[in-house]
Design a protein that fits this description.
- The structure is a single chain.
- By secondary structure, the protein is an alpha/beta fold.
- It has three domains: 3-96, Rossmann fold (3-Layer(aba) Sandwich), CATH 3.40.50.720; 102-286, Mur-like, catalytic domain (UDP-N-acetylmuramoyl-L-alanine:D-glutamate ligase); 295-431, Alpha-Beta Complex (Protein-Tyrosine Phosphatase, Chain A).
- 30% of the residues lie in helices and 28% in strands.
- The protein is built from 14 helices and 24 strands.
- The protein has helices spanning 12-23, 37-45, 55-61, 77-84, 92-100, 114-124, 186-198, 258-271, 277-283, 313-330, 344-349, 351-357, 381-384, 426-431; strands at residues 3-7, 27-31, 48-50, 65-68, 88-91, 104-109, 128-135, 140-143, 149-153, 166-171, 202-206, 220-222, 227-235, 238-245, 250-254, 295-299, 303-308, 335-339, 363-366, 389-390, 395-397, 400-404, 410-413, 416-421.
- The strands form five sheets. A seven-stranded mixed β-sheet has the order 8-7-9-6-10-11-12, with helices on both faces. Strands 16-17-24-18-19-20 form a six-stranded mixed β-sheet. It has a five-stranded parallel β-sheet with strand order 3-2-1-4-5, with helices on both faces.
- Strand 7 (128-135) and strand 8 (140-143) form a beta hairpin.
- The radius of gyration is 22 Å and the shape is globular.
- The two termini are 37 Å apart.
- The mean pLDDT is 95.
């Protein structure tokens, strides 16, 4: 029985690995900068969790090794204490070979849609699941089974997907993101994706992506035109998308819009290497979406409230198209978007895209940047989003959203479709937590 201590254990990706090792019999402890819903859940599961970071937390745990998240800097007090004590310290990226060794890994990567595609794939295949989002089907970012199979969401942001040991590799798209890790070198970025795919025995790629469409390696390819007759329908005020896929017949998945059909198609093509089509068709109906991805919090005849993790212009534009489809089905004419920019570097690098992607909304409310540890840069939000309304925070009032704008005027959003975007704490604000 080995002991492992996680620094930054509250992160959505690293907490899934902690849960997985705990289920495998490891003694797991960990720490984070503050208490969260995730740290509470881990503590209730039997892991010793310390808040905030402290030197004593890691020394008292006396672990065989330490795993630290990508958010942890080299001057972190716990990381320094562990290294000074001679404890082996591994980044999440470095720990992946240990976690996934001897497993048959079904890995999903991509700038957009990888969490959704991973969760869909998890509904189709038997095996453990380690993803960077909470699947509403099984209520967690990790599901453990006594199986060699692991469905794994592979991360390109720090090139850790190169350590994911894929048997099957699915790539949803390869739009440039996290370019600071790749020295802003597109060739280096594309080489990482190519390396990820080359490591797999079976590959599934979306050739609508400009880069993926150029690849000559042997792969199962989802081409433009393979998906047809897309229809979005409502059941109990919830959206479902049905579509035809090549010559494989008709499928239906929870969610609204073309991107749902694309993600589901990639999952179907991947699962079809292991499972028969009729079983896939039935199992896909078990997928119920993922938390914070077009997550419908309220749906009524006159009003809907949605929480979405979208924090990149491409994601936001695609989700607003789905929101318009959903609003039309509900008979709602107005869409109000609430945007909490995530990281100053991302905001500046994609500023033009952010200014254009909200064209699908009728009204826009902008919150302060969620810094995620970054220092402010010279982007003037009020100048760049001159037609938006600005607020410091939003507040949940029953089913509705209230806020005071920058002039102190009180607003209540209680009609139409209201959708919040961001990877910061906007989700907690939308949920009244």
């Amino acid at each position: 029985m080995k002991k492992v201590h996680f620094i930054g254990i509250g992160g959505i990706g690293i907490s899934a690995i902690a849960r997985f090792l705990f289920e495998q019999g490891f003694v797991v402890s960990g720490s984070d900068i503050k208490e969260s819903e995730v740290t509470k859940e881990l503590s209730e599961a039997g892991m010793k969790i310390s808040v905030p970071h402290s030197k004593q937390a890691v020394l008292d745990a006396s672990p065989d090794f330490v795993v630290y998240s990508a958010a942890i800097k080299s001057n972190n007090i716990e990381l320094q204490a562990a290294r000074n004590a001679g404890i082996e310290c591994l980044s999440r990226k470095e720990a992946l070979p240990l976690v996934l060794k001897d497993k048959k890994v079904f890995a999903v990567a991509g700038a957009h849609g990888k969490s959704t595609t991973s969760a869909m794939l998890a509904s189709l295949l038997d095996g453990s699941v380690i993803i960077g989002a909470v699947s509403k089907q099984f209520g967690s970012n990790m599901k453990y089974e006594q199986s060699e199979n692991v469905i794994f969401e592979a991360d390109e942001s720090d090139s850790s997907f190169l350590n994911s040991n894929p048997y099957l590799a699915i790539v949803t798209n390869a739009e440039p993101e996290h370019m600071e890790h790749y020295d802003y070198d597109l060739a280096k970025f594309h080489a990482a994706y190519r390396g990820f795919l080359e490591r797999a025995k079976v590959r599934v790629i979306n050739t609508d992506d400009e880069f993926l469409g150029t690849l000559k390696m042997d792969s199962i390819r989802l081409n433009e035109g393979d998906i047809s007759d897309i229809k979005v329908i409502l059941r109990d005020n919830e959206p479902f998308t049905s579509f035809n896929l090549k010559g494989l017949g008709r499928f239906e998945a929870y969610g609204a819009g073309k991107h749902i059909a694309v993600d589901a198609s990639l999952a179907v093509l991947g699962a079809n290497c292991e499972v028969g089509l009729e079983l896939i068709r039935e199992r896909l109906k078990n997928y119920r979406g993922i938390k914070k991805r077009f997550d419908i919090l309220v749906a009524s005849p006159n009003y809907a409230l949605i929480d979405d993790y979208g924090h990149h212009p491409t994601e936001i534009a695609a989700t607003l198209k789905s929101a318009r489809l959903y609003a039309d089905l509900l008979g709602l004419s107005k869409i109000t978007a609430i945007f909490q920019p995530h990281r100053y570097t991302r905001l500046k690098a994609n500023l033009d895209g952010f200014k254009q992607c909200f064209s699908g909304a009728d009204e826009l409310v902008v919150l302060p940047v969620f810094a995620a540890g970054e220092e402010p840069n010279d982007v003037d939000l009020k100048a760049e989003f001159s037609t938006a309304t600005f607020a410091e925070r939003i507040e949940r009032k029953g089913d509705f959203i209230a806020f005071k704008d920058s002039f102190g005027v009180a607003h209540i959003l209680n009609d139409g479709l209201v959708i919040g975007f961001g990877a910061g704490d906007i989700s907690a604000q939308l949920r009244g937590k």
